[in-house]
């Protein structure tokens, strides 16, 4: 019985020693979301050759505050449909992308970053591989809420 009491005491002491630190509620919270309309990514396509060594990505960025900006670029790799990109310039935007297969075969997806550094705004359009087939445009177009860059 005395041994059990000691074990319980040690367990209680250990659990309080590794417990998560207390987080104090703060009166002020700042939203990372921009006070701007959602950006619409229009007519998004990815067209790859049969060997999947070259893909052309095309779309337009419509901020709903200025005319849409067309963007088209070619990415190479093996497979090109899974190749990352970085620092592609499309008008005022800088485009980067990365593919993920973290959800298993047949569930891959690519997330793009579309950044307007002059306005310090970013959106992250994302499409699964099933949406990006044979150069067909993703329908309907998707919109994304811009976030403020720090």
Description:
Keywords: Signal. This is Small secreted protein. Residues 1-19 form the signal peptide. By secondary structure, this protein is mainly beta. 11% of the residues lie in helices and 40% in strands. It is built from one helix and ten strands. The strands form two sheets. Strands 4, 5, 6, 7, 8 and 10 form a six-stranded antiparallel β-sheet that branches. A four-stranded antiparallel β-sheet has the order 3-2-1-9, with no helix packed on it. A hairpin with a 5-residue loop joins strand 1 and strand 2 (54-62). The longest helix has 16 residues, at 2-17. The protein is globular, with a radius of gyration of 23 Å. The N and C termini lie far apart (58 Å). The relative contact order is 0.18. Mean pLDDT is 89; it is low at 3-11.
What is the residue-averaged pLDDT? 89
Distance between the termini: 58 Å
Helix proportion: 10-25%
Structural class: mainly beta
Strand content: 35-45%
Major sheet description: 6 strands, antiparallel
Q: Secondary-structure element order, as H and E?
A: HEEEEEEEEEE
* Subunit organisation of the chains: single chain
Shape label: globular
Number of strands: 10
Q: How many distinct helices?
A: 1
Low-confidence stretches: 3-11
Radius of gyration: 23 Å
Protein name: Small secreted protein
Keywords: Signal
Signal peptide: 1-19
């Amino acid at each position: 019985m005395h041994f059990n009491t000691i074990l319980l005491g040690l367990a209680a002491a250990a659990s309080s020693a590794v417990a998560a630190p207390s987080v104090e509620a703060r009166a002020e919270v700042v939203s990372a979301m921009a006070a701007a309309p959602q950006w619409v990514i229009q007519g998004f396509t990815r067209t790859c050759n049969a060997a999947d060594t070259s893909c052309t990505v095309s779309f337009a960025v419509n901020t709903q505050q200025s005319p849409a900006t067309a963007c088209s670029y070619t990415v190479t790799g093996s497979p090109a449909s899974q190749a990352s990109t970085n620092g592609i310039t499309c008008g005022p935007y800088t485009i980067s992308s990365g593919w993920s297969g973290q959800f298993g075969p047949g569930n891959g997806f690519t997330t793009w970053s579309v950044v307007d550094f002059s306005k310090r705004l970013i959106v992250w359009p994302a499409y699964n591989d099933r949406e990006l087939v044979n150069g067909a445009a993703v329908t309907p177009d998707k919109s994304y809420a811009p976030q403020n860059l720090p």
